[in-house]
Design brief:
Layout: H1 2-6, E1 10-12, E2 30-34, E3 43-47, H2 73-80, E4 85-91, H3 102-105, E5 109-112, E6 121-125, H4 135-149, H5 155-163, E7 165-166, E8 169-174, H6 177-193, E9 198-203, H7 206-210, E10 232-234, E11 237-240, E12 245-247, H8 261-269, H9 279-294, H10 305-317, E13 326-327, E14 337-348, E15 352-363, E16 368-379, H11 387-409, E17 416-420, H12 423-429, H13 438-450, E18 456-458, H14 466-471, H15 475-479, H16 482-486, H17 534-551, H18 566-584, H19 586-593, E19 610-611, E20 617-618, H20 630-633, E21 641-643, H21 656-663, E22 679-681
Parallel strand pairs: 14-17, 17-18, 21-22
Antiparallel strand pairs: 1-6, 2-3, 4-8, 4-9, 5-6, 7-8, 10-11, 11-12, 12-13, 14-15, 15-16, 19-20
Amino acid sequence: MEEYMDLNHAEIVPVADLQKQNEDVFYLPMHAVHKEHSTTTKIRAVFDTSAKSTTGVSLNDTLLVGPTVHPPLIDVLLQFRLHKIAITADVSKMYRAVELTQPDRDLHRFVWRSKPDNTLVDYRMTRITFGVSASAFAANMSVKQNAIDHATEFPQAANVVNTSFYVDDCLTGANSIEEAVELQQQLHGLFAKGEFLLRKWNSNNTTVLQNISPELRDSQPLQLLPTNDEYTKTLGIEWSAKKDHFRLTVAKPPPLETLTKRTLVSDIAKTFDVLGWFSPATIKVKILLQKVWEERIDWDDPVPMHIKDIWSKWRTELPKLSHKLISRCHFDTDTEIVSTQLHGFSDASESAYSAVVYLRLTDTSGLHQISLVISKTKVAPIKRLSIPRLELCGAHLLSQLLHHVKRVLCIPLSNIHAWTDSTVVLNWLDGSPKRFKNYVGNRISAILDLMPPDKWKHVNGLQNPADCASRGLYPSELLDHPLWWSGPDWLKQDQTNWPTLTPNNHDDEGTEISLVVIQTFPQPVIPVDRFSKLNQLKRVTCWIIRFIKNSRFKDHSKRILTPLTMSELQEAENYWIKIIQAAHFKTEIEHILSKQPLSKSNSLLTLNPIVDNYNLLRVGGRRQLSATPYHSKHSTRNRDMVVIKEDSPLLNEWPLARVIGVNRTRWFSSCGNHQDFKWCIQTPD
């Protein structure tokens, strides 16, 4: 806290401002956070800006978080491994390098006394505060804006700010000592323009470090494990600048008398593996965790013996993973790379599916170097899926990984290869997604949007490194597993030695074809929805029918030129009835014309339907013995078209009265719900 005052990052509230209204001020509770592994500030003051005041509202409740303006953590780490010479740095007190405006300072008040017997004094922050929801955006945007403002003077440093900074951590590099020194100087100058200080400089090259002031270097390396190597924490990953390699941070788990679901989750959370280098080991306990959930075990209940045995062995072997050293740079720094390819592999089992990506780098001598880039695993859904579908999920996961790495590392699509050991998936990707059900078709579409079908190839299951991550390995098995760390042997050979599989050899097992039944019926040449009155539709239909008839007479004297007749209007009406009946009662009409009985479940059976001389379906039965007109004895039934007389006196009483009025002209099955009449030609109310 004395440092806050000495650096003018906090000030005593002036006496005049102590009289401000309550709505213009806010007091923040404060507590200390201990960080033993920090090489600079082991105790930090953190303000609880989520604490609510007497109004029931906290400072964070009134603020917006703001968007993320720095690149993802994975992208920064991926680019960090491309440089021959690595450079790391840290922005000193980045939050407290950004000033608060005068009105905002009173919203960041706190009380403090250096000794218990001293009087409490009102202070207020002059710089943005840890814990405030908007502070992260304000600090990161300040750094980014500083780079934008001075990009012309420091172009390389400005580019590094946009691509290689994660909050206050810088992970960058260069391919020569001269370039590295120039970049370090540009970064120092750029941040000095915004009154930021870059400190904790580190590099795998001593010449670069000699050009940096000793007080700004990272002179206190972190040692979490008892070894002679010097490690620093780089975005959660331990990095030895001296040996220029990474290792996984794994502390020896404390002994436990009882293994519960809570301790299982705790063990998984302690293993930070952002790039998935050790995913074959971590997926093994994730599968166990799913089994624990399936058995509905409470958080503090002991797990079953068959889970405990696997988990105990994994837990005992976990510290061995810290002995696996992974080179920071993807290639030998003494060679020149002339070609870069991405190779991705996917696989699935009943328990999980996975994807892993490798870089294949070719140097000037023609030798090929293989480096593990990234991998990702997912536990199979609790709702069981077939193996082909899980393999498809693995291929989808791989396409996403390849697309992401391709964009970050700027590798052309022509240099990307995707491999799977599932011939079923290859067969699916070789066809149209429309052939399959939604689950398969949607994922095929998503895959092909990211990776074209010509990029997918077949690999033997025994040579597929993704198999390690889909089935899981114990840490001792993963430690020296050549297939996982270096990929298949043929990847180091020329392309002529790569496995090939022609499309004719693809297995069709599991192919899903959706059967679509299409029913065809006569389509009217007149757009019905353009007419709101039945009489108008009938008259237009009459004129079209008359035109067709007249055009067939070569002798003009035989053509009909008189006004429309009642018989023509009836013919037009019959035409539309026939169109609708052909759409919905085609099978019934065919059965009646061929004198075949209707099925017992047919809804028309009780109506004793008949087909008249105009091939119209009409109601039969006892009504034919009545003295009513023919169209009343044998009415036409129309499910989708309701013929309404324009002079009906009941049109304004919907729905039941209107239906009764319609019944005088046509019979239909339902008269209680107007939703049954989907295609209705009527006069407006």
